[in-house]
Structure formats: C-alpha cells, structure tokens
Amino acid sequence: MTDTTTRLTVAQALVRFLAAQWTERDGVEHRFFGGCLGIFGHGNVAGLGQALATSPSAEDLPYRLARNEQAMVHTAAAYARAANRLATLACTTSIGPGATNMVTGAAGATINRLPVLLLPGDVFSTRVANPVLQELEDQRSYDVSVNDCFRPVSRYWDRINRPEQLPPALLAAMRVLTDPAETGAVTLALPQDVQAEAWDWPEELFARRVWHIPRPRPERAAVARAADLLRSARRPLVVAGGGVLYSEATDALRAFAETHGVPVAETQAGKGALPHGHPLAVGAVGATGTTAANALSREADVVIGVGTRYSDFTTASGSLFAADARFVNLNVTGFDAAKLSGTQLVADAREGLADLSQACTGWAAPDAHRARTAELNRAWDAAVDAAYALDADDGAPLPQPAVIGAVNAAAGDDGVVVCAAGSMPGDLHKLWRPSGPGSYHVEYGYSCMGYEIAGGLGVKLAAPEREVFVMVGDGSYLMMAQELVTAVAEGIKLVVVLVDNAGFASIGNLSESVGADRLGTSYAYRGTGRYDGGPLPVDLAANAASLGASVLRADSMDGLRKALDAARAATGTTVIHVRTDPAVSAPSSQAWWDVPVAELSTTDAGRASRQAYEAGKKEQRPRLTPPG
Ligand SMILES: Cc1ncc(C[n+]2csc(CCOP(=O)(O)OP(=O)(O)O)c2C)c(N)n1
Ligand SMILES: [Mg+2]
What we know:
This protein has 23 helices and 23 strands. The protein has 628 residues and is an alpha/beta fold. It has a six-stranded parallel β-sheet, with helices on both faces. The chain has a six-stranded parallel β-sheet with strand order 14-13-12-15-16-17, sandwiched between helices. The structure holds thiamine diphosphate and magnesium ion (MG).
C-alpha cells in the first residue's frame, strides 16, 4: 500500500482501470477488455470521449466506432463467446436513446451468460440543469433515469453519482464479469457531469489486476450420488451445452463419452463440443434436433446435462425425455444444475466431467447402446447428405438446406458460421457439421434478429485467424445491416451470406401451423391488406454494395460455390446475395415446440391446429420426482 494518488477525471480513471484488467485460467493470461466500442453524444463525448482520445492507457483499449448501440453490445457478446468468456469489449454511449438502444443487447448477453460491460451516459448528478436533453423526468422521483431499464437485464448495475463510488463499483463489475456462475451484462451508468469531474485516485486502483477464472470442483458426495445413478443406466445420453465450450472441456467430454460409451447430443450453444463424424456425436438435440439425438433422448434412462440451461428448444418444451428419465446436471451455477429435478453437480464442466468419470470407473453403457447410436447416426447422415444435395431449376430460388451445405463446405476446418434468428438457426442446428469447438456460433438464447452481422464482427475481432461466415435472413438484414459499414471502415473481413426469401420463412410457417394465415410474414405490396400485392422493388444486394461491401449475386448452386470461393480469397468483406425458396425446409426433427394455438377459431384448419396442440401438451412432463 502506498498513499500516492493520481488526479484524473472519473472517465480517465475508468479507462486506465479497464486497460489494466486481465484474466487467467490454466496458467494463461488474457487481456480482459479487447477494446471499447462506442457512439459519442453529449452524454459521453466530454467524459469518456476525452479520456479515450487523450489517456495514455487508451492505447491498450482501442476505440471502435459502431453504427448502432444495440449492435455494439451484440459485437461485444459475440467477442466474449468466441473468447470463451475470458475477454470481452466495453461499450460507451451517450445518454437517453443511445443508452437504451443497448437494452436489447444487454438482455441477449445476460440470457446467453456472456460478459459485456455497458457504460451508458446518464443525466446530471447535480441536477442543476434539469431537465437535460433526452432526460426522462419521472414525476415520482428525480432519482430515476432511462438507465434504470438496464436493471433487470444486468447481473450488476450501478450508477456512479460521486467519484468515490467508482472504485468499489469497478471491482464489483469485474467480479461479476469474470465469475462463470454470475456473468452477463454489467451496467455502470455514468452521469455526464461526474464523468468529467476530477478526483485524487489511489494509485493501487490502476495496478495490473489478474482475475482468476475459477474451475470449481463438485462436492464429493454429489459426485458419488451421480455415479450411483449412472451405474444403473443402460441408455445414457449427454446433453452438451455452451458451458462445455466456455470451460474448454471438450477433451474431457470426449474422454467421458468414449470411456463410458455415452453418446453426446448438443444444444445450440454447445454445438461443436464433439465434432461431426465422431461415432458418439449425435448432433443437435431438441425441437431443432437430429432424429438420432431425439430418438436417444426419448429412450434415455439417465440424461447427463453438461453446461446447459435446458431451454425449451433443448427439451422440446418439456416433451422430449421419457417420464421416468433421471437427470444429472453438471453446471457451474446451481440455478441451472437444479433444473428438471436433477442430481446437481455444481462445478466447472471440465473438472466435473473428470471427477464423474473417475467415480464411474469400470462402468460403461452396454454395447447395444453404441450399435443403436451408430444406426441412428447413419440414418440422419443420409438425410443431411440428401438435403445438402438439393438443387433448383435454372433461375429458380435455391433450397436453403443446400445453401447451408455449400457454406458448410466452404467453411472447412477454420471457418465459423454465425447466425441468430429466422429459419436458419433451426436448419443450421440440424444440418451443420461442425469441425470442432468455436466453429459454430448461433445466438439462440435471445435469437435476436440483427445479431448476425454485428456478432460476426465480434467473432472476427476475437478470432482473426478464422474465416467468419455470417448467414443472415432478409428480415434480420433489414433490421440491422449497418454494421457492414463498421466492417468496411475497420477492415474487419466477413463473408456475409444474405439469404433472401422475401419475408419471414420461419414465422410464416409457424403462423400457418397455428392458424394465423401467414398474416404479415412476407415482404410484398400491401394489396388487400394481406401483403398480396406482388413483389417489392427492393434490392438488398444493391443495398449492401451501397454500404461499401463487395457484392456477389449467386443464382445457382454452382454460382454460390464459386462466390464462396471468391469471398474466401478476398481480403475485404463480401456479401453474397442468394434468393431461396421458403417452401423448402430441412428434414424434420420429429420433435415438438410449445407455441399456444388459439382455443377459438372459425376455420377447420385452425381447429385442427388446436387439436394437434392439445395432443402435444399431453407430452409435457412436470419433472417433480425428487432426485436420487
Ligand atoms: C428482434 C426480433 N424481432 C422479432 C423476432 C421474431 N422473429 C423470429 S424469426 C423472424 C423472421 C426472420 O426473418 P428472416 O431474417 O428473413 O429469416 P427467415 O425466417 O426468412 O429465414 C421474426 C420476425 C426476433 N427473433 N427478433
Ligand atoms: Mg427471410
């Protein structure tokens, strides 16, 4: 301890602190903040703007100008995911709309358990100039600002009303960001006057600080309970979630699977945990799963969930696993481990798998289980081969499964596919053959339209050695294409495959299945009010070109393959525009998803949908049997 102090503004101190934060896991250190994304306005330009422009520490915190605040949070979350949560980006905004634009991104990061640091500007702490431009003015309290919207979507939230409040808030923020059990969005709201205020800071605040990312081991008694259950299992199945990848537990998972003969199914976030082609890899599970993983799920007597939060897509809305199936849940957070009345192993995935394997020494599932797995895999592989081989007549829109197949081939071993919303996440989950960890990046916790291009930027920033293939639907593209400009300006190379089917294939099909007549799910002239007035004169390829990207139009499968080769070889960002036929879908998962159908309908089709829905509801299980 010294009593040396340094006089800096709050914003300058913040920048200096952020540049000095590191994480360490398995003996390797990582700079925690790979940079700061931002958009300046009067709420941050004089504070953080001045600090980022003039602080010597800012060299270690490169500033990047985004085009939309929501997008920059997606970029930061994608960066964190690609870095296995060992690093992230900070995001600075002005007050008011610039700040609240980040709320959607914050929810996405928190839902996906990804660390992002959000630094929205806030209204004057002194209040002397109230109300300032963009101030909410809550008539019940001057203590409320729009930044209070961040409270429910943040894992730590604070407002820095005085300089002295900054150091404890920064330490709390870092603790949450680097704690695998707690991590998510962290918001430090920064009143614009406080940002510019000077203070004498203890020099220790700026010392290089290394945050050790824990690998907690499970309680011994819990391992014994889980092992007892496993030893009785004849048809076990692992459900691998994102936690496997974040923990870098893929070798431990493979060892566990091989030693005990347990097939591995993957959630959206866990896809790539065991590469396609491994005899025990059965691919996607759940509502968008493979028929192999879903058959094994229905037959499973013990399900070992590793690093999964068991979303409705994973469990087919609670209908997938047998009524008497038992669960062992290995998760770094008790909140997820406790789900489905499972036997809880609260631990790091890698450590937990090793301990569980050790406790199960000598136990393996019967050979018949491997044989069944192989047989189911063969059938699904043939279905994917057929889907990837689909083609279209000359000039006709292409089949989306074949487009995915072409991108899968172009991605090779070093590529990573990025997607988030629409019909593609489901098709990708089913069909995509991942080359290994990090090769598959589909944001399906929040499934936020607009994540795709912004997320691709984050992946490329975190993993510049990889070729990043962004697959984006026309709906998502129209919501958030503007980060193409950021990619061009920053020289960040993306290959963007813009899949144009003139509307919402996903929600269109869903609409039809729930008796909503596809209302408002295609892009066309209004016509009678049902958007039946014919195609719009919209040219999204020209739009992409206008944003500075190189653009290739692919109107055949062969043309697409050539365009992908050219985009791979290019040094800058390329957008490949391809028209697809929304009527061609991927092979069925043979699994259900709970979307309530109207109890009252005037049409036969509507009544039939409701009947099918009620039949589905009967398969939902409450899972209240106590564990053990
Ligand atoms: C921000 C946001 N708004 C709405 C939705 C609901 N939604 C899910 S998919 C979808 C349509 C996506 O259209 P497009 O990107 O063209 O993909 P397609 O379904 O055609 O494959 C909508 C509106 C969402 N996921 N995210
Ligand atoms: Mg579409």
